[in-house]
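Posting here for the record, re: coenzyme A.
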Amino acid sequence: MKLAVYPGSFDPVTNGHIDILERTSKLFDKIVVAVIHNVSKQALFTPQERADLIRESTKHLPNIEVECFSGLLADYVSGKHACAIIRGLRTVIDFEYEMQMAMWNRVLIPNLETIFVMSDSKYTFVSSSGVKEAALLGGNVSSLVPEVVERGLLAKLTIIRQNKEG
Ligand code: COA
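Prediction output follows.
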């Protein structure tokens, strides 16, 4: 079975990520979306909330599983017996960081391939931070995130406002 891992923070998942999954799900028997707790990033959603949002948003893709993980990606990928890591490339700015990560992961697991998939042009400017910032400032992000994520962002916004008032 050809299994690939699609790792990331996904705080939250956007239509850009879903686009990558819709295209790569045709290439592999199974894709495990691995939600990482990235300590260098201040997260809005807990890893469990992020995983649930991805599950809801990928119900139309039968070969997608979602898990949370922390630690070294190479260890996680080895444990899954995955043949590839999937990463999306939006612009050339992503390239240098992604190339370094791919090299690191190849040193740690020589047989592992990193598969880069070009984002759809309509999502090249989209990032989770951008979506969070716009939504939390009252902007409409409905064209950039799944409906369930939009609802999740509005719920977080309500909590933040209540905390400020209280
Ligand atoms: N559409 C929309 N946004 C996209 C996107 C796409 N197709 N592809 C990437 N992005 C955005 C993400 O939303 C995220 O935005 P943000 O920075 O505003 O949150 C940004 O690009 C970075 O993507 P992400 O995949 O979340 O990267 P990351 O840097 O948080 O995590 C890992 C990358 C998980 C691969 C890396 O941190 C990792 O491997 N960690 C484990 C520890 C490890 O093994 N380290 C290697 C040691 S050498």
